[in-house]
Amino acid sequence: MKKKPLIQRDFPSNRSFTRFLDRIKDQYELEAKPKLSLQRRYYDTFDWRLYRNGYVFETDDLKPQARISQHQPAADANLLMYRTCGIPVLQEQKPDAAKGRIPSDRFDVASIMPGPSISPESQRSLGVVATAGDEKCGLVSRLRTFGMRGDQITAILRQEPDFAQNFDQSELRKFLTQFLAMRRLLCQGEARVSVEPFEVMDKGGKVLLRLELEKYQRTDRIGRYRTLLVNCRFNPLKGYYNICSHLLDLIDADIGRPDINGDPLLVILSADNKLPGSYTSKFNLNFNPEMTIGQVLAQTLMFHIDVMVKNLPGIRDDLDAEFLHDLRIANRRSRTLVTQIKRVLPPAKEKYYREIFSWLSNETSEHRDLDVFLLDIPKHLAMLPATMRDNLEPLRAALAERRNKVHKRLVQVLDSEKFRGFSSASRAYLTAGLRDHFQTAIGSQPVLTTANQVILRVYQKMLKQGALASRSGDRDALHALRKTAKKLRYLLETFRSLYPQQDMENVIMHCRKLQNILGRIVDFRVQQNYLQGLADDAGNAAVFPPATVACIRYLIDAYNELEGEAYTKFAGRFEHFSEPGVREQFKLLFKVIG
Fold first, then answer.
1. d(Cα 51, Cα 35) in Å, to the nearest integer?
2. 280-443: same fold as 7-63+137-271?
3. pLDDT at residue 118 above 50?
4. What CATH number has the domain spanning 7-63+137-271?
5. Which of 323, 327, 575, 585 could form a disulfide with 314 if both were Cys (CB 3.0 to 4.6 A apart)?
6. For residue range 392-422, what is the model confidence (pLDDT) as tens digits?
């Protein structure tokens, strides 16, 4: 990211900042500039991917005071370069006819220059990112480090931020993509920010330092604005950093050193009773060996069902594909538990949960398949020769239309009495299970007894299936092995807190590496089968032009080649997974002899 030094301090109140200004006036000249009001919004993904990586993405809506756009000024215009919220902007200005000068700007003025003398190249060298005055509105955006340390990327947006690939600014798009992937940015909080610029000058009127006071405000229940945070940014001119240090010493002596871990984001979220990073689909419960398997199963199922419920609004609103993906993973993990850890639940309840998780898997399967294929369109285009790429559009459009229909059907499923009854009744039932261990003999057993048995049984099943798949090369055997590998990994991750951390990380690593190879092989086969079905469908012959069918068949051949390449790596990976040393790790860790 670009390095932009940022010095800032929080004040307990507006009154304390006023006292600070009075102390400045004792030693320097101080001039207040016109105020600015803006709406600041904070964005992150549903699972807080930016926050978890130490970043904050915020936008400033400057309407109606300023409208930001890519605008070419008239040849006879004057340009005023100013900074708003740390972003250099050029504004077209007409000379004041009465006074023969350029009117004072509402922002912190850096310099005034005649328009024709500033070429696009010069603008870039000056760091100008936009011009103001056009009717086409944009949003000033910043991606910065948490805690306002000063590292940031700035850009002008043409629309509300959503997906990383839709950002025009290449540096910002590239940086966001590595964190967001396919997730959408959502507005997590907002506040009105009143910006009050000041210039600190020596007695001769020379500007030494610029201050930018930001007051974060929200409306209360009766519509009055209430100040949440008073923050001041310091922008010393080159050569006058000692003045800035002196003023910071005055603040520290008056109100003390600030909390270096603070950030306005936390204040805004707190006003909405939000906790950043509060949602995660990653299983993170910790258990102890004194617990029973019934208690562990109850807590784990509650966690996964809670994940499903939290993702429902995002699925209904079709915000991004990861909402459904998280629901499906939570469902698969739950299904693994009730199918592999048997007789903990009473027979009727075990049957009910097996059926409900299977039903939900089937009902969400086609939607997920379509999501995956449509998300992979850029990859499919890259696999095709350049001369064929335009011919893939009819396929993309047809699948997108099909997905819309499937999505409406899925929303009906999730709003059905069957699903709502399952999600609402499960919490009460599982909470009772925490107390009475589901009133079964197995449910009352120590958790380690069952965990050891189940994990070793699934591991041994994997060894048998893997040996068969290695000998035969049968694709169905590989698919079965992949499903078993997923079950083993889900079980390991569920019970990982009960075992030594490093030992558990080692066995999970072995499982993950094998699962990754299996995933590539099976996914390539699934893509081939899906495309083959589209190509063979007689109805599609009338829908797709011959050139599109040719694209489909080209992709089938390409995926077949990729599958073959992945399969050549399977034998070596499985040999490593099943070697005596790894087997011994499993036996020792899960205390099974033989």
1. 30
2. no
3. no
4. 2.40.320.10
5. 323
6. 999 999 999 999 999 999 999 999 999 999 9
Q: Under CATH, which number does the domain 446-594 receive? A: 1.40.20.10
Q: Who wins on pLDDT, 183 or 243?
A: 183
Distance CA(340)–CA(454), nearest Å, equals: 7
Assigned token pair, 581: 């040393």
Other C-beta atoms closer than 10 Å to the C-beta of 229 total 20
Per the prediction, the chain carries an average pLDDT of 84
For 204, the token pair is 């001769």
* SS3 readout for 427-491: HHHHHHHHHHHHHCCHHHCEHHHHHHHHHHHHHHHHHHHHHHHHHHCCHHHHHHHHHHHHHHHHH
The CATH class of 280-443 is mainly alpha
Query: What is the pTM for the complete model shown?
Result: 0.84
Selection from 140, 185, 145 nearest residue 165 by Cα: 185
Whole-number Å distance between alpha carbons of 474 and 469: 6
CA–CA gap between residue 14 and residue 18 (Å, rounded):
6
Q: What percent of the chain has pLDDT over 90?
A: 62
Q: Do 39 and 60 touch, CB atoms closer than 8 A?
A: yes
Q: Where are the alpha helices (DSSP H) in 94-225?
A: 120-126, 170-180
Can you say whether residue 281 is alpha, beta or left, with left for phi > 0 and alpha for psi between -120 and 50 degrees? alpha
CB-based burial label for 57 (10 Å; 0-12, 13-18, 19+)? buried
**Cβ(330)–Cβ(281) under 8 Å?**
yes
Tokens of 521: 């092989």
For 321, phi and psi rounded to 5 degrees? Answer: -75, -15
pLDDT at 113: 29
- Going from N- to C-terminal start, the domains of the chain cover 7-63+137-271, 280-443, 446-594
pLDDT higher than 70, residue 357:
yes
89 band by pLDDT with thresholds 50, 70 and 90: very low
292 DSSP 8-state letter: B
Q: Residue 293: what pLDDT? A: 96
DSSP line for 523-576? HHHHHHHHHHHHHH-HHHHHHS-HHHHHHHHHHHHHHHHHHHHHHHHHHHHHHH
